[in-house]
Every structure is written in C-alpha cells, then in structure tokens.
C-alpha cells in the first residue's frame, strides 16, 4: 500500500494510497486530488480556470466563514456551565473546536491541490510535505468530529433509557475520558497513511483491505450509531411509557415521544442525511473517471463537510436549554465589550 504522485504532469500529480489505474482512481474512497486533477489547467491563473474550479474556490471561502461563525457561536454556548451539566455539553464543546479544525484543514487541502496543480514547478519538499500530512490530519479532525456527534447521540439515548436514574457526574467523567482518548485512537488507525504516502514512487499494493476497513468504519460507524440512537429515543422511550401508562396505544406514545424529544431526534437524522453522499462516493467500486461527471463527486465531497458547519443549528437551535445558555453567554460578552 503506497501513496504516490505519478509524475509532475498535471494529470498525474495526485497523492493517493493504492494501486495505479492510469488516469482513473481505483479502490474505495475518493480524495480531492482524485476529483480535481483532470479539471485543473497547469500554468493558468485562477481567473482562467474552469467555472467548476472557480465555483469550488468560492464555496470554500463561504464554507470557512460559515464554519468560523458556527464554531464561535457553539463555543460561546457550550462553555457555559449550564451546557455542561452532562457529558453531551462536553462532547459538543469539543466538537465546536474540532469542527473548525476540520473545515480549516479542508480549505487548506483544497487550495493546496489547486495551487500545486496549477504551478507545475512547485518544490518537491512542499509536495512531499502536503502529500504526507494534509490528508491524514484532515481525516483525523473529520472523523473525530463525526464520532463526537455519535457520542452525543449515544448519551441522549442513555438519558432516555435511564431517566431519573441517569448519573450526571458519571456522564461527565466518561465524556472527559473519551474526549482525551478518542483522538489517539483515531490517529492510531491513520498512522499507516503517514508511513505509506510517498511521492513519485509506485509499488504494487495488492492488499488494501486495511485502508478500506478504516474508511468504512469511520464513515459507517457514526452513521449506524446515530441511526440506532434516534430509533431508540423514539421507540425505546415510547415502550417505557406504554408500560407506565397502558391506557394509551403504543402509536400515541410514539407520537408523544416525538413531540417531546424532537430536538433530540433532529440532530442524528440530519447528520445521517448529510453523511449519505460521502458514504455513496466512498463505496464506488473499481475505476472511476471523475472528470466525466465532476460535480457528481465534488458536490457530495463538499456536502460531507457541512456537518462541521452546522453544530449550532443542529444541536443548539432546537434546544431550549442550549439556547438559554447561548443567550446568557452572549449577553455577558456584550456587556463586557465596550461600544
């Protein structure tokens, strides 16, 4: 398993892991290099690049601004003591930081790919450094953000299950440990990329099962966790209520549960929907020529980063508790800031 740039020509200046497939991309998981390399024109300024490249550049700027605003508002909310009564608030406080780091690395990745493909005389050391470091770091923050959101979904399901027996102190203690350990666990599964990524080298890699398994785990894992948590919040809670109040039908309990806890259900469902495009393009088998349908691949790639921009809208806006904490923190900051 090796990562390579096949040559300094613009058509072949990508950094990928796996076997060579001519001008096609083989295996599971498309990177930004794979998607853009045939679209970028060498020695051509950005204004003269294709509309798709210029549109992508504009979208990255918009996404960065949106991600920055989201992270600031989220951090203001979750640093409030009322938001950290249970582990959920601590996961989301960490997510407000990792989401900004993920978006920032995405912007760096996009412009690194664009500028190094446009400038064919880019120094070898810069290409090598970008090849080895940018993609793994981007994946680290993206996967970390996804699993932090999954932790929120799990804790909310546990809260519904235990009810008044839910231990807030234990929840916060577990959250601290997970937030501390999780980055190292994810990094450990990605360290192979730092080892095998190489420039201008090609080594046959008949066995890419590990890389495939890692990608599949980080894409499907949070997907399944969020789905099961959302279903449990609805039906598990309804089942408990049907035992306590047998005079109502199970359907009525489900409807009541949905109305009462809709803010707990919205976030995992939205995260599920936004993760589907990346999951689809990452499971494409065989060789794929992205230049024939660029936005069929680039669109889902961009969409896959939107959860990192929506922490505030998904988790704070539907919650009365978090909105109250946000308003209190915002008012406190505003009173301290001189006009």
UniProtKB/TrEMBL annotation:
Q: Superkingdom of the source?
A: Eukaryota
Membrane in keyword set: yes
Entry keyword set: Membrane, Transmembrane, Transmembrane helix
Where are its TM segments located? 55-78, 90-120, 174-195, 215-235, 264-284, 296-317
SUPFAM superfamilies per the UniProt record, alphabetical: Family A G protein-coupled receptor-like
Asked if Protein transport is a keyword of the record, the answer is no
Q: Provide the protein name.
A: Uncharacterized protein
């Amino acid at each position: 398993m090796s990562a390579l740039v096949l040559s300094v020509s613009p058509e072949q200046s990508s950094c990928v892991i796996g076997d060579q497939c001519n001008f096609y991309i083989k295996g599971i998981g498309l990177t930004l290099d794979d998607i853009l390399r045939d679209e970028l024109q060498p020695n051509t300024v950005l204004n003269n690049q294709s509309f798709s490249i210029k549109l992508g550049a504009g979208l990255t700027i918009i996404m960065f601004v949106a991600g920055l605003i989201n992270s600031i508002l989220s951090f203001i909310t979750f640093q409030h003591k009322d938001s950290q009564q249970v582990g959920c608030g601590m996961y989301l406080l960490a997510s407000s930081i990792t989401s900004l780091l993920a978006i920032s690395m995405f912007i760096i990745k996009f412009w690194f790919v664009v500028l190094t493909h446009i400038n064919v005389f880019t120094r070898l050391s810069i290409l090598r450094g970008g090849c080895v470091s940018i993609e793994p770091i981007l994946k680290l923050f993206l996967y970390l953000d996804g699993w932090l959101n999954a932790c929120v979904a799990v804790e909310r399901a546990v809260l519904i299950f235990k009810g008044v027996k839910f231990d807030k102190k234990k929840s916060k203690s577990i959250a601290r440990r997970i937030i501390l350990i999780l980055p190292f666990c994810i990094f450990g599964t990605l360290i192979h990329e730092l080892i095998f990524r190489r420039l201008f080298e090609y080594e046959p890699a008949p066995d890419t099962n590990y890389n495939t398994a890692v990608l599949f785990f980080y894409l499907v894992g949070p997907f399944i966790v969020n789905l099961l948590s959302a279903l449990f919040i609805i039906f598990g809670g309804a089942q408990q209520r049907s035992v306590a109040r047998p005079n109502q039908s199970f359907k009525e309990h489900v409807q009541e549960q949905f109305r009462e806890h809709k803010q707990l259900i919205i976030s995992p469902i939205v995260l599920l929907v936004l993760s589907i495009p990346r999951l689809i393009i990452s499971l494409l088998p065989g060789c794929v020529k992205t230049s024939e349908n660029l936005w069929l691949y680039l669109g889902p790639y961009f969409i896959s980063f939107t959860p990192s921009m929506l922490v505030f809208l998904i988790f704070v806006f539907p919650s009365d508790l978090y909105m109250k904490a946000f308003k209190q923190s915002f008012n406190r900051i505003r009173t301290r800031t001189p006009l």
